[in-house]
Design a protein that fits this description.
The chain is an alpha/beta fold. The chain has two domains: 5-199, inorganic pyrophosphatase (n-terminal core); 204-325, Roll (Diaminopimelate Epimerase, Chain A, domain 1). Helices cover 38% and strands 16% of the residues. It contains eleven helices and eleven strands. It has helices spanning 5-17, 32-47, 134-144, 151-164, 175-186, 191-199, 204-214, 230-236, 246-250, 283-288, 306-325, and strands at 22-26, 53-55, 83-87, 109-113, 124-127, 218-220, 223-228, 258-264, 270-276, 292-293, 297-302. Helix 4 (151-164) packs across helix 6. The protein starts with a helix and ends with a helix.
Length: 327
Amino acid sequence: MTTNKNTTLKQASQLIRSAHRPLLICHIAPDGDAIGSLTGLGRALRHEGLEPIMACSDPVPARFNYIPYVGAIVQDVSASFDLVISLDCSDLKRLGHFPQMPTFRSVPLLNIDHHLTNLDFGDVNLVDPQASSTAEVVLWLLEYMALPLDAELATCLLTGIVADTRGLRTSNVTIQVMDAALRLMKAGASLPYITHHTLDRRPTTAIRLWGATLAQLHIEDRVIWTSIPLAMRRTAGYAGNGDAGLVSFLVSGDDADVAVVFVEREDSRIEVSLRAVPGFDVAQVALQLGGGGHALAAGCNLPGPLGEAQARVLAALRADLARQRHT
């Protein structure tokens, strides 16, 4: 965090305590940490008598339907609100269309995140790049505020931790992270159930999409990449956002240091997902291209057409990886 942790927790707590109807927003193309943090914080604040609005610009992937309160997430907001809480977003662009709302900038903004590339865009920035996930940061906040945990809330937050650590397997899984997971399990969250639904389940249409995409795989200079044109998604019948988890599969290839998947969106923009093996860093390339993330997992959103976005990203990657290999 940019300031003393307890000071920032106090400031975040004060903002929340002074609100009545906070607007909670997670990032576009939401993943398990985004949805888990959103629903977990929303559940806790509703229990305290607040009237939180949970929002996301994009639909929630079906595999997260097991998460409590996921059905309450909306894509558009017409009600008034007196606080905005950004969850798991490194910059305002990741909030989708909500920053364009006329009343968005007229209320305080609390930024809760764990991305190294976070731009500290909030009035209060509860951001810790050492945290495993935004869900872990939310847990710190709830415990600081002495808010009780129950099984539903714990399920939300453990989903976030499991999703962003790939089942407690990434290098940022510390004793403190394991202890946080233990506290959530003691509150009633089931680690096997969450791991199964978060990491091991996907729509059959996603598997069909993988098949079509893998047939167009490219490997060059230890960068493995492929693309998902809009027409391919439609042919496969895949209605979800993003790459259906494909990039995390690609980076497991033993002749690749970095994996990239380009996804053409309905709005003609190109969503770029980047993954790296330990020892390499894709966050700086993502930041250079207007995105963000972590050393091993990052992304950005670029204007089309697809071919131009591919050329731009691959050129930036080649240059940066050459630098990394010689330092």
